[in-house]
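Sequence of FAD-dependent oxidoreductase (Gimibacter soli).
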Amino acid sequence: MQDRNVTIVGGGIIGLMTAYHLMERGIAVTIIDAVPPGDRAQTSYGNAGSISIGNVLPLGKPGFVMDGIRMTLDPESPLVMPISYMPRIAPWLYKVWRASGRATVEASAKASALLSHESLAAWQALVTDLKLSELVRPDGWLKLYETEASFEKTAKERALMDRFGFGYRVLDPDALAELEPGIAPIYPKAILQTQSLAIRNPGRCVSALASHLLARGAAFTLGRVTHIERAEGGYYVKGEGIDHLARELVIAGGAWSNRLLKGLGIRVPLETERGYHLMFDGGAGLSRPTVNMNRYFVLCPMEQGLRMTACVELAGLEAKPDYRRIRRLVAHAKRMLPGMATDERDQWLGFRPSMPDTRPVIGEAGGHKGLYLAFGHGHMGMTHSAGTGRLLAGLIASGEGGDVLAPFAPARFGA
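Predicted 3D structure, token representation.
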């Protein structure tokens, strides 16, 4: 080991991947989080488990405003925005709209493609190293379209996958039936993104990575960080039972990262896309994560049963869970997969940390030597975690990769 110890605030998938790659480079790590890795309180726990290789279009693409209005007015759409939260989120939505211009969309798609290629290679290496092949499988990511017209709207997306070298197949009804016979024969077109991986239990995957790090000498501190401030030669990290001096510090606190940075005078336009899941018995014969692209819900076979994920609820970190919207989509899920059971076994709410240009913040904070930011991955946290960890570890260890990380630099938001 080098005579360095990097403190990471955040023990979710981003923090753990960063720790893994730092330790691969001989740097010791201390990880601090309020809950153990893999706990259901983490956003890493309850997602769809897809390493979605090929999803590069940003949130703020052309047509964003009209699509948003239409979805907000539809009581069965996955987009939920309480009236009480609109004044607070309006500045962030304005920034999303500003990022929907052609040049910014192209730049964001290119950056996402770069990070996806990096992440796929890093995920594959990690699966081999940790012997996770039964848990993380090359099953792909399946998208279903209810109409030919909705499929035709994917022309830009398919062109980007072609341009950036991502594998996919367009399926007609016969090919779809052969691939997934349990899906109802009501979809004229589907796309299988063939390089995507499927995690059959995201929480267990995170726990396995944490156990590997612990066995290699990583230090874990359990406690809620409430305040970070400058110190001579580093940063004081303070909280419930925590009084820690960090010489080098990574903030990987997901949707809570702005709160962690408040004492340092740093703030970026970070918002929260709340997402829900429901768990049902069995897998109904489904082989891979599958998304209905007209209704925007995902059905994914898990070790624990069949998981349904849905919703983008723009309501911040404090609002109580509201499962009404995802439950309205269960009938559509049953129509898609007639063999599924619909008695709920479990419910869950998670908090996606999202930036207006759909690019995470990765890199050293300006004017704060030794302080690194790694958050804001939105819907691509599991996918891009491995690439984020590998690239950020290279930057911390030896300053390498700054040009590759430039599109994600905190400086684009003045941080």
